[in-house]
Amino acid sequence: MSKTAFPKNPVLLVDDEETWTRSFSLALKSAGINNILCCNDSREVEAILETTEVEVIAADLAMPHVSGEDLIRLVTSKHADIPILVITGMSQVETAVQCVKLGAFDFFVKTYDKSSLVSGIRHAIQIRELKRENTTLRSRFFDDRLERPEIFENIVTANSAMRSIFKYIEAIAESSQPVLITGESGVGKELIAGAIHRASGRSGEFVPVNVAGLDDNIFADTLFGHKKGAFTGADKARPGLVVNAGGGTLFLDEIGDLAHGSQLKLLRLVQEREYMAIGSDLTRKTDARIIAATNIDPEELNKSGRFRSDLYYRLKAHHVHIPPLRDRKEDLPLLVDYFLSQACESEGRAKPEVPGELSGLLMGYDFPGNVRELQFMVMDAVSCTEGTVLNSERLQNHIGKGAPVCLEAGPTVAGSQKVAFGTELPTLKEVSEELTLEAMRRAENNQVEAARSLGISRQALNKRLNNMKRDNSDS
User: What is the spatial distance between Cα 124 and Cα 83, in angstroms, rounded to a whole number?
Assistant: First the structure.
């Protein structure tokens, strides 16, 4: 398993007692903090800070040569961005409080139980990461340039909102905190997750897993693995995908469908970075970064009661929302050309000419399946093209006979919505049917919600749906 140094810069432990720095190093490593630098002579700290970028300092208060108080003054005057935690004996608490007033991040009493100090250091690391991300985001707000545009080369777009997402990804890339990606089905959530992984520079693998429909046992076995003999049929041990993602990124798609038991296990993984294989009582640690995705609206996910709010907020340490294709139609020509090239390359054929009417046809369509639907449409059209011009009839049939109707949100007269038509006007019956189907799609087949959005009663909507079904069966 590949091991990633965490944090990126070392945690500096300063204490004249070598046994204490050694034992505390072990406690930190067992908690997943493995980038550690020990110093048993406080006089060497200044030289270390001149040559090494340090993430956090944990220093004993009572040391010969340079005391903890003097060390705080040194760090706050020359390296004010480095949080320093003071470790003190029971009789020195008043002095430790004074140290906090001098600029120390926090203080802890030295005991055999090091869990509180480990938590304090982890908290200091998170604060430091957030400050760096805020600084990076502020600088990128005034700079439209991407640091590493090659990371996003397989995401085809000319949309300004997507470019802002790319800049945000670069700013949060090196963070160890989870990322929640939201957006409708087919917008490219896994592509964005892959870009985050590449931007992070992590040495481990990108491991995607779709958790939709997994019951609690299969979820635990898929992610955490099992011991030999853990259940009937477990004739050998299985490591699980968390192990495969060590030093890299674990991408969990469709987390909105997780069972409550699985949510509790995922919360422990995200919060404590630990898990247990099925049939084992041994707690294991992971340094994999967690990226989760869902096509459910994040506020609905949080308020529905089906998803734990503590897990939701843990996963949403960073949030990326991908706009649907209907809100970035300037990308259509680029995407059509990209998918056309892909399809022709896979079939080993020359690229056909795109008919002029195709642009208007696509611009008037709402793309409920987003980029994935467009990809299918183009590949299907290519496979049915015999001449040198792309078979647009296949696209026309997919969208619907006549021209499509597209409802696009935007400011219009009297608060109504803008309706965009294609090259040929549809009939009133076709408009009514398309509008009804779109309302049902947006309401996820909830007739009460769909009827409300159409401004009709549920009974009237049900009558329309039955008539449409009868007409289709007659034809």
Answer: 7
